[in-house]
Amino acid sequence: MDAHSRGRADEIDPADQWVLNPQTGNYELRLNHSGTESSRPSRTTNHSGSRGESEAPHTGIPAQRGRHPAGNGGDRKQPAAGRGRGQRASRRKKALLWTGGVMAFVIVAGSAGAYALYQKFNGNLDTVDVGDAGSKSVTADGPLNILIIGTDKRTGEGNEGYGDKGSTGHADTNILFHVSADRTNATAMSIPRDLMTEIPDCTTKQEDGSEKDIPGSQNVRFNVSLGQEGRDPGCTMRTVKEITGLSVDHFMMVDFNAVKTLSTAVGGVEVCLDKAVKDPDSHLDLPAGKSTIQGEDALAFVRTRHSFGNQSDLDRIKVQQQFIGSMIRQMKSDDTLTDPGKLFKLADAATKALTVDSGIGSIKKLTSLAQELGKIDTKNITFVTMPVKDNPAEPTPVTVVVDPEKSQQLFSMMRSDTSLTEVKKKEQAAKDKQEAVLKGSRADAADIRVDVLNGGDIAGAADATVTWLQDEQGVAESANKGNAPAKAGSTTLTYAPSQADQARALADIVGLPATALEQGTAEGGQAMVLTLGADFKGAGVPVTGPAKAPEDIQRASADKAECAK
Question: What is the DSSP string of 378-418?
Fold first, then answer.
């Protein structure tokens, strides 16, 4: 398959789709499942009354699932249970509306795409094959990490004045969207483009199907993880993993034009300013208080660096988070969700603006993703910025570096799937487990039997740990069992009920929190299993507990409007 390809039309589910009403010339969302009834008229998507591109009559539209053909030219008699089916259809419609709205977060790119099960929208999608940089299915168990990338590529009419003139598209705006395993909450962590970091080696797939190996770079800005030297979004995904220890499952990428077209499609996005702004560079001209912006004004709002705070990229990130949060609320409002015409425009704009990895490179797959995200309440989506500090290598700092203490706390929370909206609850639960699990007797080191597996990113970690346990800690019955079957986000120790004293002793030696101990049901005839995860930093380095939130980090909730200062 080519690295850059289009969504496949053969994955379209005909059950719910936009169809052309030949009587009005407008596209309408058909949710009717009756075989005798055509689509009911709805608000139009073509307000001028002209017909769309595809003017096929209803007989040319694929049959819906559950359709019942009329017998002998007459209407099929509806059974008494028909009312129940109507109620189910109503609930189904509400579910679809909700699904469309929740995708607003991912730069609203996939939102109406969940609605747009029509061939036109599937063909709009651009995809990139990132190889093994991505991982799981959107419906797989466990947490889900999606990297959202806004590039500075000058595509689209009127965007010549923005970004780097010769840019192939750098990682200008970056948000790692971590969805919890139970789909009840999410943490959206912004990554500064001016972060100095290490970019690992990466292999990219070219349009002709060949592969190109791109060597890594040391001490460079994060934004060159995309575009520079031919790097694709898979390289940016690998860079995020290098920094955070979190494996990125999928990416979604948009450019300048997406902000303009999507904000216009929803009828404008409400923003709030603490003071009036008139910026000659971005041409942003807004009064103090609330304003509804779209198109060029929306792009100027998210691009300006000289209007808020100390005019840094970090303050611009806060403004972008405010804009995205407002977009979420607008997308999920009745004004959008109950207007088929607006949804059609949004679907078209969103899918044209969106580039994704091949793992979610179809409307069907985006719909599955939307359904997963639809389980999250807006109040449980927390925006946060990666903790950083000024680059000490620069006399007058322009770039930033990772704050080693605060960032590791945040990364550890995300790796252990702890939400910022429920930290206190998790902290208390961890404390209770610590007291319950670690209270009791300890076995002697010589009596501990443990197999060590490496599920982290440090090569040779299992072997080094076994050597340390045997030579320095007296745990002679420890064995290196090589790599774990799959990567592990956090370190775990699995033990049988009869091995609790061994587990407590090994937890003391290795420095494991109680949350890392997992009691199984098997008898203790076999050795315990210590699986080293992404949070493992080396033999003898304690694995810190996951539930402590870093202090004084910038955060905001998606359900609350704030004024830019």
Answer: GGGEEEEE--EEE-TT-SS--SEEE-HHHHHHHHHHHHTT-
